[in-house]
Q: What sequence folds into this?
């Protein structure tokens, strides 16, 4: 890289290299994005209504074309210095307390993470599912794993699962989260995304990227007591 020798030398003697500046830039970008999203948080559905209309129509077409057939992908995550019980408790407390900002801060692509006032098992979500170009409006419903079209990994003793629906109550897919501790007591998670068979493959890979980013950020928050 031509810029890998970049340096900034402060009068105090501090020297920042290219990696330092990238990390600083990312941190400031997150803070700026968090500030902006907090300002239009309650208006985001209206603000993004045209984009949501496009992705809703397209995602429902994937379901129709797939004729109840599904495909999936998964990633396995290790969270050192936390047990799965500690991490799961932190996450579920955020949901129970309707801490939308903490949930939203898991990923830059989170525009809305609102737990229903009338039904704590429902979450309204606006995000770029699968790193798609446009945001999707999704209704996440916590369901038992036995209704999810996947083979549960019996080496993980506990889980929680989301059934994902569109604005029109069409089931678009599922997200499963399986937990166990490794022999060192570290939280291990298996995160699976299940989408219609005719959905493009990049949505599967893209959403595994999404999982990786958001669960790392939530892990760091749980580990350090942030948010």
A:
């Amino acid at each position: 890289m031509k810029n890998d020798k970049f340096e900034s030398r402060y009068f105090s003697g501090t020297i920042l290299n290219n990696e330092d500046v990238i990390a600083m830039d990312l941190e400031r970008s997150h803070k700026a994005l968090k500030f902006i999203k907090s300002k239009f948080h309650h208006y985001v559905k209206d603000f993004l209504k045209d984009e949501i209309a496009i992705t809703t129509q397209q995602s429902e077409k994937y379901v129709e074309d797939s004729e109840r057939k599904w495909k999936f992908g998964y990633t396995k995550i290790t969270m050192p210095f936390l047990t799965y019980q500690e991490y799961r408790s932190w996450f579920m407390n955020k949901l129970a307390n309707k801490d939308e900002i903490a949930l939203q801060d898991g990923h830059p692509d989170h525009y809305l993470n609102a737990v229903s006032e009338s039904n704590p098992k429902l979450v309204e979500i606006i995000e770029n599912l699968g790193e798609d170009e446009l945001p999707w409006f999704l209704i996440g419903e916590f369901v038992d794993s036995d209704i999810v079209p996947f083979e549960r990994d019996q080496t993980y003793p506990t889980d929680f699962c989301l059934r994902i629906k569109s604005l029109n109550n069409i089931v678009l897919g599922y997200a499963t989260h399986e937990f166990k501790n490794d022999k060192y007591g570290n939280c291990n998670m298996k995160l699976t995304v299940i989408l219609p068979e005719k959905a493009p493959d990049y949505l599967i890979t893209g959403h595994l990227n999404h999982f990786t980013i958001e669960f790392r950020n939530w892990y760091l928050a749980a580990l350090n007591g942030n948010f």
Summary: Residues 1-44 form one domain. The mean pLDDT is 93. Helices lie at 18-40, 44-47, 49-66, 84-96, 100-104, 201-224.
